[in-house]
Every structure is written in structure tokens, then in C-alpha cells.
Amino acid sequence: GKGLAVFTSGGDSQGMNAAVRSVVRMGIYLGCKVYFIREGYQGMVDGGDNIEEANWSSVSSIIHKGGTIIGSARCMEFIKREGRLKAAYNLVTRGITNLVVIGGDGSLTGANLFREEWSSLLDELLANNKITKDQREKYKYLHIAGMVGSIDNDFCGTDMTIGTDSALHRIIEAIDAIVSTAYSHQRTFIMEVMGRHCGFLAVYTALCTDATYSFICEDPAPNNWDKKLCAKIAEERKSGQRLNIIIVAEGAIDREGKPITAELVKKVVVDNLQQDTRITVLGHVQRGGSPSAFDRILGCRMGAEAVMALMEATPETEPCVVSLDGNQAVRLPLMECVRRTKAVAQAMADKNWDLAVQLRGRS
Ligand code: ATP
């Protein structure tokens, strides 16, 4: 059978295990020899036990677990050609020419570069007598399929990334818990949620929790946000509301691009309204816990589609990323999505927020 390997890279997210499981089982079902690569690109560069053949039962009892059981890492060596040469050797000598990468835009960019260089990497290995002429010929094409695992929902091309829905569940559970204590003491709570470059979690959280206000990066707060915020809180309290929830995304900014932090918001509320105000930073709790039903299904569907894409690939097929588009798993050109994602970041750096939102598209 064809050699196929799956790995997770960059930040972890809930639902990655469902995706890994699906890739392994779909691969085996279609007659492939399937491998795990542990610790992302680091395991690919280091080889040895990091690359291990998987069987049907090696992915039993993982679908409900958060994070990634095969480990994830950032790997400086893979950014250099020397590291990629080692990785190519480790794959060719195991007959692996199909890769499923589950990660963020950095991981996908690395996979694309690896594929572009594949031929020249094999030439170098042959010239150094590391591989045989037969191996050079037999494994001359590398195929890539990607999936995005990220709680931020920050990738262009897909309606949802794997992990976002679970993170939302985690955040909402935490806020629901805080609401009851805030109610008892008539407090204002400022909740900091993840999302450095994408306000999706903050906006959806605000909608789900009856929050008074939310601060994000794509829609910077107006110049007089402090007055508007205090007026809204005061008005709500006057009408009988006993608490207020304010959501601040990590990357929240004002119109000048200056950060709006939870501390700053707290100072504004305390100085102007003298309210009992507390901050809760949810941090990595958002990335933890078991994946939601949605993320388990998303991982399953995307994993199966990724393997089918690889099995149908011809030498001309470009690397794809499996995306969710209106509840359909679809294949999109990987680099086009990565470029769009990077263009969004650039537009935000240029303070062109309208362009950023337009580039990001539907979700
Ligand atoms: P997250 O969104 O969680 O940060 P990511 O995949 O974008 O995920 P990165 O740290 O950017 O996270 O990338 C993960 C790994 O992918 C890097 O440590 C590196 O090994 C590899 N990688 C990233 N960019 C490149 C690149 N341009 N060339 C080669 N490899 C890369």
C-alpha cells in the first residue's frame, strides 16, 4: 500500500485527535500503510521512534480527548533546508509520500515548501548515497493535504477550524459560572479570551453570554469607548441589571492601534463608576478539555476527505487544505488560503480593518 503519515504541528486544539483517528482509519481502509509522526516536524526531522506505523486500534479511545495524543511542537530545524533534508530521508526510507498536516498557517506553509523542494531534496540524498536510484524513482512525488486546527477560527477558506467550537463551549461554561457569583455581589466581570488576530471567539462569546460590550482587533474601539462603555453599564444597572460582563480579546485595540487590555478596561470602570470589578483571564483553559460533538465530527469528516484527496492526487495535483464550506467538506488550494490568511494579518497591521474583514470572508 501507499505510505501515508499524519502529524500535528503548531498550537494544539480540541478535535485534533478525531482528525488523526479519521486519517489513520480511512488510510487503512483504503489500503495504505499509515504512520504517526510524533512531535510535529521535530519528529519528522529526528526520525527513529518518532515515526511509527499505526494500526486500527492505535487510535481507539482518543476521540474524546483534548489536545493531540501524537504531540505537537515548533521546530526551528525544519525552517532550514538541512532539517528538511533529514525529514525527506526519514520519509523516503519508510516509503512515505503522502502527508496529512494538521496545524496552522505556519505548518501548512512549511509543508508546501517541503513539497516544492522534494525533488531537489531527493537528488541531494541520492548524490550523497543516502538513498538508492530505485527509491529516488519510486518516491518522486510528495502529496500534501492539510487541515487547520486552531481555536481562534483565524484561517481563511474554512467556516470553522478544528477546536473553535470546543473553545467556545469552554469559555461559555466559565462565564455562566461567573455570572452567578457576579449576580450575587453585583459585580462587573472583565473576561479576557484568546484571539490575538481574530475576534471570532470574543464576538461569539459576547452573543452567547448576554455581554455588555466586547473588544476585538478587527473592529477597533471608537475614540470615546470609555464613555460609551460606562454609559451602557450605568444604563443597564439603572434598569435593574445586577451584573455586567465585558469580553476583551487578547488582541483588542483602539482606533490608533493601541492595545485595550483587561486592566485598562477595569481602570475605566472603577474610576468612572466605582463598581466592584474583577478580571478573569481564561488562558489555556480554552484549549483544554474534551472536544465538542461538532469538533469530533469536523475532525472525522476533514480527516476522511484529506485521505481521499491524497489517494486521488496525480503528480500535477497541488497541495490542498480541507475546509468546511456551508457544511460541506471541500478541498481548497492550500497556498491560496495561506496567502489570504497572511493578507488579513497584513491588512490589520496596516490598520485597514475593512479590508481585513472583507478578505477573511464569510465567518
Ligand atoms: P499556530 O496557528 O498554532 O501558531 P502554526 O502552524 O501557524 O500554528 P507555527 O509556529 O507558525 O505554527 O509553525 C509550526 C512549525 O511549522 C514551525 O515550528 C516550523 O517547524 C514549521 N514552519 C512554519 N513556517 C515555516 C516555513 N516558512 N518554512 C518551513 N517550516 C515552517
From TrEMBL:
Pinpoint the Phosphofructokinase domain residues.
Answer: 4-309
What is this protein's function?
A: Catalyzes the phosphorylation of D-fructose 6-phosphate to fructose 1,6-bisphosphate by ATP, the first committing step of glycolysis.
Family stated for the protein in its record: Belongs to the phosphofructokinase type A (PFKA) family. ATP-dependent PFK group I subfamily. Eukaryotic two domain clade 'E' sub-subfamily. Belongs to the phosphofructokinase type A (PFKA) family. ATP-dependent PFK group I subfamily. Eukaryotic two domain clade "E" sub-subfamily.
Query: GO CC annotations?
Result: 6-phosphofructokinase complex
The protein here is known as ATP-dependent 6-phosphofructokinase
GO MF term list: 6-phosphofructokinase activity; AMP binding; ATP binding; fructose-6-phosphate binding; identical protein binding; metal ion binding; monosaccharide binding
Residues included from the entire protein: 17 to 379 of 782
Gene Ontology biological process terms from the UniProt entry: canonical glycolysis; fructose 1,6-bisphosphate metabolic process; fructose 6-phosphate metabolic process
Q: Where in the cell is it found?
A: Cytoplasm
Residue ranges for the region (N-terminal catalytic PFK domain 1) are 1-363
Q: Which residues bind Mg(2+)?
A: D105
Residues binding substrate = S150, I151, D152, R187, M194, G195, R196, E250, R278, H284, V285, Q286, R287
What keywords are annotated for this sequence in UniProt?
A: Allosteric enzyme, ATP-binding, Cytoplasm, Glycolysis, Kinase, Magnesium, Metal-binding, Nucleotide-binding, Transferase
Protein species of origin: Spodoptera frugiperda (Fall armyworm)
Q: What is its main location?
A: cytoplasm
